[in-house]
Every structure is written in C-alpha cells, then in structure tokens.
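Minutes, project check-in
Item: structure for the 89-residue chain
Input as provided by the requester:
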Amino acid sequence: MAQTYFLAMVLGLPLVLLAIALLAGYLHGDGYADLLDWKPTRSPQREAELELSEVEQMLAAQNVHRRRRGAPERTLDEIAQHAWAGLER
C-alpha cells in the first residue's frame, strides 16, 4: 500500500502537472510570449550595436598585441575578407 502511494506521487503527480501545463498551453491561443508575459529586454537594434561594439573591442585588443610584436594592424574589412575566403573553399 505504501509503495503504491509512493509510486503514484513520484511518477503520477509530475505527469499530471505536465499534462495540465501542456493543456493550458494548447488552449491558450495568443502565443507563448503572452502566456509567459515575456518581453525582450533589449531591441534587436540594440543587440546589433552591442555586438558590433564587442567586435571592435576585440579587434582593438588584438591590434595592441600585434603592435607589440611588430606585426601590422588589421582592419575589420581585412578580417571579413579572410573569413569569406575561408568559406568559399
């Protein structure tokens, strides 16, 4: 008797909760973002600006090391051309 009750709680209760959550999601027709009240923290434009800023910072840091070694600095265009050449192979 105790083992049956334990098994029902361990396996049955999570399955019932999952079934209720799936049913609620299926019956809610406005979409998951509305159901979860989810809104992006930043706009896609701001994300792109931050990504570009990070790339510029990494390039500047690499150029500092290149200057110390006596190697010529690289520009973003040179790196992009090198990347595209690698993709074309």
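Outcome recorded: The two ends are 68 Å apart (CA to CA).
No further action items on this chain.
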